[in-house]
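Backbone shape codes:
***
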Amino acid sequence: MILSFLGLLVAGVPVAFSLGLAGAVGIVTGLSPTMLATLGTNTYNSIAKYPLIAIPLFILTGLIFERAGVAARLVHFAQALIGPRHGGLGLVAVLVCMIMGGMSGSGPADAAAVAMVMLPSMTKAGYPKPFSATLIAASASTAILIPPSVALILYSIVVPGVDLRALFAAGLFPGILAGLALLVPAFWLSRLHRWEAPETTERPPLGESFKQALPALFAPVLILGGLRSGLFTPTEAAVAAVAYGVVVGIFITRELGLRDLWKLFGEAAVISGVVMLIIALAGIFAWAGTMLGTFRELAEWIIGLSDNGTLLLVLIMLAVLAAGMLLDAISIYLIMMPILIPVMQHFGWNPVWFGILLAMNIAIGQFTPPVAVNLMVTTEVARIRLEQTIGWALVFVVAMAAALALVAIFPDIALWLPGVLGYNV
């Protein structure tokens, strides 16, 4: 089953169909061809889960805020805060990506919105396009950590007993830490190469830019505040976010019309359809692997490699990083978690903390070639080749890996906030 999955991937078959076909191969060879009758039930059961409703809604939220002109207003506000300096626009790009991540929950959507606004300004200020594209792609990867995160929603469904609110709270400080880790090389490189002369940059008025950015800044407050107060569940928070985005786009920024909204519904449906197809067909793979005992055998093999939990954690992180270079976050969670859950339970790792470590690792993979989804978006906007970004990508990989190491060594960076808020960790 696993060999057929890898073979299909190498042959260029899309991940969703590779998972479904490999699961069918496992059923035919290890169980009985008559068990193929379960394919329909397994695909349905995989997506017939109430929390999954939040995924298409948060995808729609990101698209609405992107088209509503929110990114441009956030950029002006960040420029007013940071002011003219060497590396100022680089700092602005990181900051805006982190705020946008608190609305969309999707790295590629975040990267597209910020790149469209920031790349022309950064190029005009003297930043090389490969550097700018890589910085924005790396910064947008924090969307997988800063709530609401589509990947963390899926993790809460795959891992039994994990509170999604605790995951959202746990991702906040590691997400901020990852952003700060990217700021250090961005600022240092900008000063070293004297990019963006301060005298050539104008500082927007702080008061006016803050007033214009206020509706965007309130979106994460609405989502997280509503969750904390118990006003709504994570799924209901997604509905509230969509409604708020529509109000902002149509009545406040007035950059969104009813015709635009109809197109956004279509785009969100297409993106959500791809995500749900992966989840549905992965259900076949997961069911076959469980019935065959494949996941149990692999978990026992991993546990048998060493009694040292720290060493195994490092090996798992390296394996997830390698997977993140080739696959998206949703596929990684669906493929690897059935194997990693027994390992996590054997060594007594906190599932919330472990989920955040996986998310940070997958975030690194989102801007690490050869298959870097965020970089694909930003290089397309910048009209450059992906190979031109490899050197810069390595710099930011090291920076974010340092943040990952800190969260691994000091679990309270992730677990302190959900504990204070009273969530089950």
